[in-house]
């Protein structure tokens, strides 16, 4: 029998022909705090039942890795769908809606089914039965028409519609004890590795809970950001209003020539929401002097600030836009991270004493010269730009730390109005496969970086983890401090971004570390029909990324 010599987890090993990644993983399980779920060979992700055939170093992944946690989410979701089917029969219609602080919000969409504590307990117990039984989760390949027959028979019309737009002639379905489902991404080998999860009642449905990646033996603490949850629920109502809740629905709007209507309704809802926020500020104009806008990368902060300013002007309020970036310390004084690299993401990179001093003077009615940060020289300059607030005037300040009270610690709370903006994705691939908000923002950023900053997708992907870690540290912990929340996601955008992003993603080959992410995003965009977006107005937030915005971005 032939053998291959490979580096496995830093150890040189002889691998016999016919060995699977799962076989090999058993030798290394003791080195991991939780069950091994995936393998990575070179820059490619492999499910554990794959035979080892290629050269390339091998590592294994569990829930402490991002890819491993994705697999765990899908596996437990499969348990939930199967349990609901076994308990409720044909009345089971599980919809996995969105992520809420690393939990998944789910509903059972059937007026005959009442979501009770007893039903939650039944579901959880049934899921645990599958875990104890350690049932195999098998992948089977079907011709597209046969796969459509199978999912239709099981009442999953959303998946049948999704497959209708599929270009490939075959479909991979996963099978669990005679039940078939489709999942976007890799899956665990058996149910036995999914031994920790929980269900908790929330809104009209429940939260599916998962292990803490930093402590895999414990569930993540149950923290429900109420304001963000409310935005998700509002977005669900918007989806129902527009008749688009998944990719197949969106594709059908394109096929039927209704795409322009969808764009106009979505943009109208955005404008209505921005006007409502402007009204909230107007109602507090007897006190508010500073509007602070914060949000993660590629959430559309610049376009939002411009559209909000227009709505404020329509109410007779004069906004003065100020960028918090202009209050950066001189580059030589910027704090460094643990690797000695200058860290512009932390709040200490800003000159907080100067900012608070300027704000207090402006609020008091004094005329203040604003600084300008020269990114070429790395130094603060003054170019004769002054601001002085009169009656009915406010500052509009945009920056990642806007919701952190440390930023404006010397300014009384009543003078501030805080807005959190993010692209909170509600559109799903189908009822059991959600689209990650982080992936949607990454696609936005890739397109914008390439269009306006000369960066290719590979570089954007390579730095994305640093970006998201900065958001976890500096933005998301403060999002509940906001007076208002704006969701900048649109239901239509990925069909437009697709045509800009795909060529960049296909340029990333398997020799590059970013390949696994590129492959995942290519698969996601493959579900969508492309649309040129000619109906998108030039003040849309999406124009900030594809070009043609009426605003300077």
Report on this structure:
This protein has 553 residues and is α+β, with helices and mostly antiparallel strands. Helices cover 37% and strands 21% of the residues. It contains 15 helices and 23 strands. Strands 16-19-15-20-23 form a 5-stranded parallel sheet. The protein has a 4-stranded antiparallel sheet with strand order 6-7-12-11, sandwiched between helices. Strands 4-3-5 form a 3-stranded antiparallel sheet. A hairpin with a 2-residue loop joins strand 3 and strand 4. The radius of gyration is 25 Å and the shape is globular. The mean pLDDT is 93.
In short:
By secondary structure, the protein is an alpha+beta fold. Helix content is 37%, strand content 21%.
Task: Draw up the topology in text.
Blueprint: E1 3-8, E2 11-16, H1 21-25, E3 38-41, E4 44-46, E5 58-61, H2 66-88, E6 94-100, E7 103-108, H3 117-133, E8 138-143, H4 144-153, H5 157-164, E9 170-176, E10 179-181, E11 198-202, E12 205-209, E13 211-212, E14 215-219, H6 226-242, H7 247-255, H8 259-283, E15 290-294, H9 301-314, E16 318-323, H10 352-363, E17 368-374, E18 379-387, E19 393-398, E20 416-422, E21 428-430, E22 433-434, H11 437-452, H12 457-474, E23 484-487, H13 493-506, H14 515-526, H15 543-546
Parallel strand pairs: 15-19, 15-20, 16-19, 20-23
Antiparallel strand pairs: 1-2, 3-4, 3-5, 6-7, 7-12, 8-9, 9-10, 11-12, 13-14, 17-18, 21-22
């Amino acid at each position: 029998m032939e053998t291959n010599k490979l580096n496995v987890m830093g150890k040189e090993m002889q691998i016999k022909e016919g060995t699977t990644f799962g076989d090999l993983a058993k030798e290394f399980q003791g080195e991991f705090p939780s069950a091994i779920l995936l393998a990575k060979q070179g820059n490619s992700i492999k499910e554990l039942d794959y035979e080892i055939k290629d050269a390339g170093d091998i590592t294994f992944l569990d829930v402490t890795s991002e890819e491993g946690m994705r697999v765990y989410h899908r596996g437990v979701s499969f348990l939930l769908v199967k349990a609901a089917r076994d308990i409720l029969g044909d009345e089971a219609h599980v919809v996995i809606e969105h992520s809420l602080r690393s939990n998944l919000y789910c509903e059972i969409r059937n007026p005959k089914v009442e979501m009770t504590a007893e039903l939650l307990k039944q579901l959880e117990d049934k899921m645990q039965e599958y875990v104890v039984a350690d049932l195999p989760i098998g992948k089977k390949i079907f011709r597209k028409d046969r796969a459509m027959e199978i999912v239709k028979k099981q009442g999953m019309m959303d998946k049948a519609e999704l497959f209708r737009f599929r270009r490939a002639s075959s479909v991979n379905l996963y099978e669990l004890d005679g039940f078939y489902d489709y999942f976007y991404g890799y899956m665990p080998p058996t149910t036995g590795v999914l031994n920790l999860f929980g269900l908790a009642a929330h809104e009209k449905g429940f939260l599916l809970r998962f292990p803490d990646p930093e402590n895999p033996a414990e569930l993540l603490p149950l923290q429900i950001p109420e304001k963000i949850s409310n935005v998700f629920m509002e977005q669900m109502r918007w989806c129902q209003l527009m008749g688009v809740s998944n990719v197949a629905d969106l594709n059908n709007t394109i096929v039927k020539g209704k795409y322009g209507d969808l764009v106009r309704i979505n943009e109208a809802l955005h404008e209505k929401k921005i006007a409502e926020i402007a009204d909230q500020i107007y109602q507090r104009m007897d006190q508010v002097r500073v509007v602070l806008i914060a949000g993660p990368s590629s959430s559309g902060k610049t376009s939002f600030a411009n559209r909000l300013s227009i709505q404020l002007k329509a109410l007779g309020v004069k906004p003065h836009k100020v960028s918090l970036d202009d209050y950066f310390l001189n580059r030589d004084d910027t704090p460094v991270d643990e690797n000695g690299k200058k860290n512009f993401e932390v709040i200490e990179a800003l000159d907080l004493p100067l900012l608070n001093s300027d704000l207090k003077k402006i609020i008091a009615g004094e005329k203040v010269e604003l600084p300008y940060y020269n990114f070429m020289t790395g130094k603060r300059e003054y170019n004769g730009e002054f601001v002085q607030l009169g009656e009915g005037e406010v500052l509009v300040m945009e920056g990642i730390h806007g919701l952190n009270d440390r930023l404006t610690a010397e300014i009384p709370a009543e003078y501030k109005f805080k807005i959190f903006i993010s692209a909170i994705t509600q559109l799903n691939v189908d009822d059991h496969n959600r689209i990650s908000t982080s992936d949607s923002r990454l696609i936005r950023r890739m397109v914008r970086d390439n269009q306006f900053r000369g960066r290719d997708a590979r570089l954007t992907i390579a730095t994305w983890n640093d970006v998201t870690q900065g958001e976890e540290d500096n933005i998301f912990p403060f999002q509940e401090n906001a007076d208002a929340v704006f969701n900048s996601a649109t239901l239509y955008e990925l069909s437009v971004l697709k045509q800009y992003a795909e060529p960049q993603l296909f340029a990333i080959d398997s020799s590059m570390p970013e390949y696994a992410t590129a492959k995942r995003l290519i698969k996601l965009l493959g579900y969508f029909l492309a649309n040129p977006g000619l109906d998108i107005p030039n003040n849309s937030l999406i124009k900030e990324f594809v070009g043609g915005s009426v605003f300077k971005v």
